[in-house]
Design goal:
Number of helices: 3
Radius of gyration: 16 Å
Distance between the termini: 20 Å
Structural class: alpha+beta
Strand order of the largest sheet: 1-2-3-4-5
């Protein structure tokens, strides 16, 4: 299925991205999604910028009793790549987008200082990391995966291992 298959059902879901470190207020992010089969379940059409642990095509169940709270129902195999710029760099954005698209990735979010890409883990961590590291070397840019490491411990989630066994 492609995003076009869901175009007539697109909606935005509000998910909890975290708690602001200074004022302790919740931070929410709206993410493009489409209803999934289960009650309060949605398939994400884009990877989020701030919400950790999920990516495009994952299915989440939203808790109707707690604003923004959700649980992951099913992983899609997509990696969320987040790239942050100290200053805007349109040339790097264009080059990086073109190279990731050659690997089957897509750009989900573009802001002046942040990019989010979705790419299937089957491309390989080494290939993805080599590409991004080569293209961002020496530039005031930081990148990270959005759904590979545990938000608190930093330990790899290893969800891809089950998919490799299937």
């Amino acid at each position: 299925m492609t995003n076009a298959d869901f175009a007539d059902q697109e909606t935005r879901v509000e998910l909890l991205a975290g708690i602001h470190p200074e004022n302790r207020q919740p931070i929410f992010e709206q993410i493009l999604a489409t209803p999934a089969e289960g009650e309060n379940e949605y398939r994400l059409l884009k990877s989020p910028l701030f919400v950790r642990g999920i990516a495009a095509q994952d299915i989440v169940r939203i808790n109707p009793d707690s604003r923004g709270r959700f649980e992951l129902v099913q992983r899609s195999g997509i990696l969320a790549l987040r790239v942050f710029f100290k200053q805007p760099d349109a040339d790097l954005e264009n080059q990086l987008t073109a190279e990731l698209e050659k690997l089957g990735g897509s750009q989900d979010i573009l802001t002046e200082r942040a990019l989010v890409y979705s790419i299937h883990f089957g491309v390989g961590f080494q290939a993805i990391e080599a590409l991004i590291n080569r293209m961002t070397a020496g530039k005031p840019v930081q990148w990270m995966y959005g759904n590979v490491y545990h938000a608190e411990t930093g330990e790899p989630l290893n969800w891809w291992q089950d998919m490799l066994q299937a």
